[in-house]
Amino acid sequence: MATTTANQQAAPQSAKPGPMKRLLVIAVIAILAAGAAAGATWFVMQRHAASEPAAPTAPVPAVPVYFALEPMTVNLQSDDGETHYLRIGLTLKLDTLKTQDELRDRMPEIRSRLLLALSNKHPEDLATLDGKHALATELAALIAQPTEPHGTPAHVEDVLFTEFVVQ
Predict the structure, then answer these.
(1) What is the pLDDT of residue 100?
(2) Smallest Cα–Cα separation from 142: which of 120, 166, 164?
(3) What are phi and psi of 160, to 5 degrees?
(4) Which helix (H) or strand (E) holds 167?
(5) Which SS3 state, helix, strand or coil, does residue 47 take?
(6) Is the pTM of the predicted complex or chain greater than 0.70?
């Protein structure tokens, strides 16, 4: 029995770490964990960026230029003997301001072409939606035609109707 009590007395009492030592150990563990997480994130991001080819940047689409023409009134062809009129307002959708300037410089010739083409139409041709779409396509081609014999055609993306009255 003496050995039991001697062992109990011989064992030194374990010293409890102080609160400062415990906080220091927790802080070191937290710093190591944050460093490991940051390193792993950096490694994964570098590996991901290297494996992915650089995506080609899509060209920014050009902002269209809208060019409003003065409204026009023309007499239409009539088979019934009555006089029919067309009042039409047009806005052109163009690709650049340079095209707009070129068209503005040629406007008297363009208006003459448009008036001649419109005055050759019948009211029945313009009554349907398909007739209006066909007219817009025809007018775009007329406007795009160069005025000089060997000139380059203007780029007219679309002809938009802002006013369309058949009477």
Answers:
(1) 92
(2) 120
(3) -110, 135
(4) none
(5) helix
(6) no
Spans of all domains in the chain = 18-58, 65-166
d(CA 143, CA 72): 15
Please, where are the H alpha helices in the chain? 2-10, 19-51, 97-105, 107-119, 123-127, 129-144
In tens, the pLDDT along 43-56 reads 888 876 666 665 67
Give the whole-angstrom CA distance, residue 19 versus residue 26.
Answer: 11
Q: Residue 118 in contact with residue 88, Cβ under 8 Å?
A: yes
Q: What is the SS3 assignment for 71?
A: coil
Q: Does domain 65-166 have CATH number 1.10.10?
A: no
Token pair, residue 78, equals 């009539």
